[in-house]
Design goal:
Strand 6, helix 9 and strand 7 form a beta-alpha-beta unit. The radius of gyration is 20 Å and the shape is globular. Helix 2 crosses helix 11 and helix 9 packs antiparallel against helix 11. It has two domains: 197 residues, 3-Layer(aba) Sandwich (Aminopeptidase); 110 residues, no CATH class. It is of the alpha/beta class. It has eleven helices and eight strands.
């Protein structure tokens, strides 16, 4: 079997984990899908781990689930009497259904790892070619990587998600979405980018003014100012999507009821760990103290050292993640993987050439980030005790 997990496979695997309890969902999406919450341990110190804000960043879901699986099988150790780990492995279930349905239109479940790898490297190479065409010629035509998934249309969505399927059809018809773009779907089922769906989003004014905004490089045939695969900040101006409302309420609940010591938010890609940098403009959420900034940096530095990821200061506070980082220190934002061709290229797992960034991408993501979490937990606990 290959390394990619589709939505149903994720839930099947999650349902079989031992020592990890499925709790009440933190909320439900617009089309009624649960945002599931799992808990490991019963200790005093509470940590939140989240994946899948952007559904095309599929490796973030898979990493969190594989981390949970290792915990369940006791392949890694976290003291369950000391820590309570809250997992939200699929924050964007609607988008995950869309992306993984698109993947399964071409790449079957019952495929060997070797066969799957050929699809992944082909997808990566096509993205690279199209990125080059965009840079050299400004080419906004149909993309090679999307042509691989040209038969992935709204029709492939299972009828058990009929409301989601019907809305996807409507988005394609009303917004003339490009062929094959379901493979690039980062938004939720309403076509809203969850990370941009926040009061101070950098996109809101531009979208409200009617500006046409295109994605960069190999995605430059996708508009970000309309409801669709990526970027659009709202369905209705001022409206916060149910996924974001649920996540913010959940963070508040954990912080108010327990000894919350930190969280890890996973995205892809870039091999980056973000700490709280000096804001280029005033942070609209909170005035961060020097100690909070220093503590955040300290944990980010340890994470960076363990993974080899770049360490960068977050300077622009216009996303949902930046709001969470500001209100709930210590929160790290981690960009998994070195290859910028989501959702497939982060699953490449062989020696692809001389550049170390492209060798065994998947294994490095799983192993190095697992080690980093385990090494950061005692530091989070120590910092919390020093300040409380």
């Amino acid at each position: 079997m290959g390394k990619i997990l589709d939505y149903d496979e994720m839930n099947d695997l999650l349902g079989k984990l031992e020592n990890i309890k499925k709790e009440k969902p933190i909320g439900y999406t617009y089309f009624g899908l649960p945002i599931d919450h799992y808990v490991y341990g019963r200790g005093r110190y509470h940590v939140i781990i989240t994946g899948g804000t952007h559904s095309a960043e599929l490796i973030s879901n898979v990493f969190v689930i594989r981390f949970m699986e290792r915990l369940s099988k006791k392949e890694i150790f976290i003291d369950e009497n000391l820590y309570t780990i809250h997992f939200i492995p699929i924050l964007n279930p609607e988008g995950t259904i869309i992306v993984t349905s698109a993947i399964r239109s071409l790449i079957p479940r019952d495929i060997s790892d070797e066969e799957e790898q050929t699809y992944l490297v082909t997808y990566y190479r096509n993205c690279y070619i199209e990125g080059d065409y965009a840079t050299k010629y400004g080419d906004k035509g149909i993309k090679l990587q999307d042509l691989m998934f040209r038969h992935a249309t709204f029709d492939i969505i299972d009828d058990k998600y009929k409301n989601l399927k019907d809305n996807l059809k409507k988005l394609f018809e009303e917004n003339n979405l490009p062929i094959g773009c379901m493979i690039n779907w980062s938004s939720n089922g309403r076509g809203v980018d969850l990370n941009s769906n926040i009061e101070k989003s950098s996109f809101i004014e531009r979208v409200s003014n009617g500006e046409e905004i295109y994605a960069p490089l190999h995605l430059n045939n996708i508009r970000r100012d309309i409801l669709g695969p990526l970027g659009c900040p709202y369905f209705k101006k001022g409206e916060i999507e149910k996924e974001n409302e649920a996540l913010l309420n959940f963070y508040n609940e954990i912080k108010n009821k327990y000894d919350y010591i930190g969280s890890f938010i996973y995205h892809s890609c870039g091999n980056i760990v973000y700490y709280l940098g000096d804001a280029l403009e005033e942070n609209p959420w909170v005035n961060l103290t020097k100690d909070e900034v220093n503590n955040n940096y300290e944990v980010a530095k340890i994470y960076s050292d363990k993974t080899g990821y770049k360490l960068e200061g977050l300077e622009v506070y216009t996303t949902m993640d930046s709001k969470l980082k500001s209100l709930f220190p210590i929160t790290l934002l981690i960009e998994l993987g070195s290859v910028r061709a989501t959702p497939l290229s982060q699953f490449m797992d062989f020696d692809i050439g001389g550049d170390e960034n492209f060798k065994f991408v998947y294994s490095k993501i799983i192993n190095k980030n697992t080690e980093a979490i385990i090494n950061c937990l005692p530091i989070l606990k120590e910092i919390f005790n020093q300040n409380n």
